[in-house]
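Query structure, 170 tokens:
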């Protein structure tokens, strides 16, 4: 075997190793799961004068939230004010700027995986995080809107993401 033949042989193995390294290094190791939650008993609710409509449960309501710089968002909250802090919650930011409330929703806790749902008829990937206080949070964007959901359980997160999936533009 000549030196040139050996070096081509080694080159192939080196290139295969480099390809394998980049594949492993660039591959997203966090699990992704799809939403399969089905909700019933929903009614249409307008998000102010934005032209957006979504279907929400009868035990929830929509409340407008305005930021100091004119940002516009909507909270989807439980009607039961006693348990509002423990119930699942969704925030939809329609007109962005600095985060309303001064927090960056995308960095709430340790990333535990991803959730795939349908928003505006297209697949959408949500980052799922677990906060230090054991709250699950999920964050996604689509068509210039930002979505943030939180709950004590992953089932609650799934329900909130399912509600966001009903969002349409009139």
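Result returned for the query:
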């Amino acid at each position: 075997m000549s030196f040139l033949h050996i070096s081509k042989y080694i080159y192939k193995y080196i290139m295969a190793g480099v390809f394998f390294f980049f594949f492993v290094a660039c591959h997203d190791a966090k699990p992704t799961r799809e939403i399969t939650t089905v909700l019933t008993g929903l009614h249409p609710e307008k998000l102010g004068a934005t032209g957006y409509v979504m279907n929400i449960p009868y035990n929830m309501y929509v409340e407008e939230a305005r930021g100091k710089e004119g940002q516009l968002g909507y909270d989807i909250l439980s009607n039961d004010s006693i348990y509002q802090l423990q119930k699942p919650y969704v925030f939809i930011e329609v007109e962005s700027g600095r985060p309303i409330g001064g927090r960056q929703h995308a960095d709430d806790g340790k990333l535990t995986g991803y959730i795939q749902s349908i928003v505006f008829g297209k697949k959408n990937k949500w980052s799922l995080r677990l906060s230090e206080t054991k709250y699950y949070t999920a964050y996604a964007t689509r068509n210039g809107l930002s979505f943030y959901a939180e709950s004590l359980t992953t089932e609650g997160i799934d329900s909130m993401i399912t509600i966001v999936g009903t969002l349409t533009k009139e």
